[in-house]
Automatic annotation (TrEMBL):
Pathway: Bacterial outer membrane biogenesis; LPS lipid A biosynthesis. It catalyses: a UDP-3-O-[(3R)-3-hydroxyacyl]-alpha-D-glucosamine + a (3R)-hydroxyacyl-[ACP] = a UDP-2-N,3-O-bis[(3R)-3-hydroxyacyl]-alpha-D-glucosamine + holo-[ACP] + H(+). This is UDP-3-O-acylglucosamine N-acyltransferase. One of its GO terms (biological process) is lipid A biosynthetic process. Belongs to the transferase hexapeptide repeat family. LpxD subfamily.
Length: 346
C-alpha cells in the first residue's frame, strides 16, 4: 500500500518541503534509507544523514535546521518521533489479521471463547478459562485453568499463563513470558536440614494496556495477588517476584529484578539490570539508572544511580575518584614511604 507526502502531511498535520506527490510503501532508518521508504529525523546528531539518505520522505522536527538541499521530500512536524510512531501504528493496523481456531489447538469444553478470536496450533486452553473478544493466541501457548483474558489481548508463541490469573484488556505477552509461576517461597527446616516449600496460593493480576517482554517472569503471590497495574511496560528478561505491586505506567528495561513484597509507584523508569530489594516502597516518578541497586525505600521524584544507588551528582563524582584510585594509591604509598623514612631518622 502506497501513500504520498500530501496524504501523510494531512494525517500528521505537518508541512511539506518538496514534492507532495512523493510516494512511500515502507519504513527505513535514515542511514539505511532507500527509494520508496519514509524515515524521520528527531536528533540533531543525525542531521548529516538527511543529505545522504535515499529515502523518498523524511519527517523532520521543526527545530532542526536543514542548511543544504536534500533529495528527500521533507515533512516538518513538531515532534518527528511521535509522528513516526503514529504512522507505524497505522501501518501495523493495516496488516492482515490472523483469524480462526486451528484444529490442532486444545480448548477445554469448559472454556469460554469470545468473538473474533484467533487460536494457533498446539495452543492449550484449560478448564474455566475465559478469553475475551478479538484476542490472538499464537501456537504453543499455554493458558491454564480458570484464567481470564480481557479483550484485544495478544499472547505470542510459547508464553505460559498459569491458573487463576486475571489479565486485563489490550495486554501483550511476548514469547517465553511466564505469568503466575510459584513465588520463591521456602522455609528452613531444622529437623530435616532442608527447605520446606511454602505453597503459593495467590494469583497474578495484570491490568489493562500492559506489555510484557520476551522471557519475562511475573510470580504469583503467596496469598492475595501480585499486581502489574495499568499501562506498565516490561522489557525482556524482567523478574517480578511474588507479592509485588508495580504502579501504573511504570517502565522497566531488560534484566530488572524486583524482589518480593516491594511496592513500586506510578510513572517510574528503571534502566537495565536495576535490582530492588524486597519489602520496600518506591515512590512515584522515581528514575533509576542502569545497574542501580536499591536497598532502602525511596521518596517520590528521586533520581539515583549506582550500587548502592546514590544521587547522580555523587555517583559521577565517585566514578571520577574510582578511575583515579591507582594514581591515588601510588601517591599515598609514596607518602607512606617518606613518612617511614622520617621516623627512622628520629
Amino acid at each position: 500500500m502506497e501513500f504520498n507526502a500530501k496524504q501523510i502531511a494531512e494525517y500528521i498535520q505537518g508541512s511539506i518541503e518538496g514534492d507532495e506527490e512523493a510516494t512511500i510503501s515502507t519504513f527505513a532508518k535514515i542511514e539505511e534509507g532507500k527509494h520508496g521508504a519514509i524515515s524521520f529525523l528527531a536528533n540533531p546528531k543525525y542531521t548529516h544523514y538527511i543529505y545522504e539518505t535515499e529515502c523518498s520522505i523524511v519527517l523532520v522536527d521543526e527545530s532542526i535546521k536543514i542548511e543544504k538541499p536534500t533529495k528527500a521530500t521533507l515533512i516538518r512536524v513538531k515532534n518527528a518521533r511521535d509522528c513516526v510512531a503514529k504512522l507505524l501504528q497505522l501501518y501495523e493496523s493495516m496488516k492482515p489479521r490472523k483469524q480462526g481456531i486451528d484444529s490442532l489447538a486444545f480448548i477445554s469444553p469448559k472454556a469460554t471463547i469470545g468473538k473474533n478470536v484467533y487460536i494457533g496450533a498446539f495452543a492449550y486452553i484449560g478448564d474455566g478459562v475465559v478469553v475475551g473478544d478479538n484476542c490472538m493466541i499464537y501456537p504453543h501457548t499455554t493458558i491454564m485453568d480458570n484464567t481470564t483474558l480481557g479483550n484485544n489481548c495478544i499472547i505470542y508463541p510459547n508464553a505460559s499463563i498459569y491458573h487463576n490469573c486475571k489479565i486485563g484488556n489490550n495486554v501483550i505477552c511476548h514469547s517465553g513470558s511466564v505469568i503466575g509461576a510459584d513465588g520463591f517461597g521456602f522455609a528452613p527446616n531444622a529437623e530435616t536440614n532442608s527447605y520446606d516449600k511454602i505453597p503459593q496460593i495467590g494469583i497474578v493480576t495484570i491490568e489493562d494496556d500492559v506489555e510484557i517482554g520476551a522471557n519475562t517472569c511475573i510470580d504469583r503471590s503467596t496469598m492475595g495477588s501480585t499486581y502489574v497495574r495499568k499501562g506498565v511496560k516490561l522489557d525482556n528478561l524482567v523478574q517480578i517476584a511474588h507479592n509485588t505491586d508495580i504502579g501504573e505506567n511504570t517502565v522497566m528495561s531488560a534484566q530488572v529484578g524486583i524482589a518480593g513484597s516491594t511496592k513500586v509507584g506510578e510513572w517510574c523508569m528503571f534502566g537495565g539490570q536495576v535490582g530492588i530489594s524486597g519489602h520496600l516502597k518506591i515512590g512515584n516518578k522515581v528514575f533509576l539508572g542502569a545497574q542501580s541497586g536499591v536497598l532502602s525505600k525511596l521518596k517520590d521524584n528521586q533520581s539515583l544511580m549506582g550500587s548502592p544507588a546514590i544521587e547522580p551528582r555523587n555517583y559521577f563524582k565517585s566514578q571520577v575518584i574510582f578511575q583515579r584510585l591507582p594514581e591515588i594509591y601510588k601517591h599515598i604509598d609514596s607518602l607512606q614511604k617518606e613518612f617511614d623514612e622520617l621516623k627512622k631518622k628520629k
